[in-house]
Predict the structure of Riboflavin biosynthesis protein RibD.
Amino acid sequence: MAAALTLALRGQRVTAPNPNVGCMLVRAGHVVGRGWTQAGGRPHAEAMALDEAGEAARGATAYVTLEPCAHESARGPACANLLIAAGVARVVVAMRDPDPRTDGKGIARLEAAGIAVTTGIGEAEAQRTIAGFLTRRFKGRPHVTLKLATSLDGCIALANGESRWITGPEARAHAHLERARHEAILIGRGTLERDAPRLDVRLPGLESRAPRRILLSARTADGWHMISQPSAIATLVGVDHLLVEGGALTAATFLRADMVDRVLLYRAPVLLGGKPGIADLGLTELGGAHGRWQLTDTRMLGSDRLEVYERASKRDSE
């Protein structure tokens, strides 16, 4: 399942409005087929893996990050039907598909055909993999990641405004990879006027995946898509993943609106005593700051540390 989840990430940002799914077919301990949802949503991951496996799919186990679809489409057959026709012996599903056309129906169809089905393996990671699809479906807006590159004391610039560069080349390269995984990137008016950022992707082979540029401002700017408030991100067509990069006031505006789902914190081993990374959040007591975020990943990028935080589950249920 871990391999299937990795395959699913290959389709992130290019499969909308379909979710990005991964599939592995294993028979007698050998991988016989691999697939991931292709650009535009078709073929589905299962169809690609079955096509690669051919007759070797008979008797195999399919590991799929999302329940195989149960509905027919003009663009392709139902994946549950394809798995049945291929003669797979077992299907391991990370999570059920919330789409009412499939929700539980794909699993039921497989079981009715005599195929053993196991569910819930790697479910939490599968939800992260298709976070954009899920957030758009349940909240009607893109999944929002707030990116911060700070010093140890939480600053994003010196007192005189100098900010290039706080983090090292490894952290900046990772940040460009994150840009490539988002359909759109947003900054505020202050960052635009101070830094005139390009907001492109400067990684070999991924230059074409530069995200659309969004400006949070009440005033227009040439070459930018404008929104005047965080709630307007719901109107961004074709955007399921939004990266918010700056600056301090923009970060605080999205946080105060409770519209940040994930935080990427790149922390450099320096002390600046300069400008804070986040402006006033309007909190009046410390209790209101606790219980909102949970650490889901941390790693070293050169001399810098990356910490990834997601909304705490109890907040999601409110």
In short: The longest strand covers residues 293-301. The mean pLDDT is 93. The chain is about 25% helix and 25% strand. Residues 169-180 form the longest helix (12 residues).
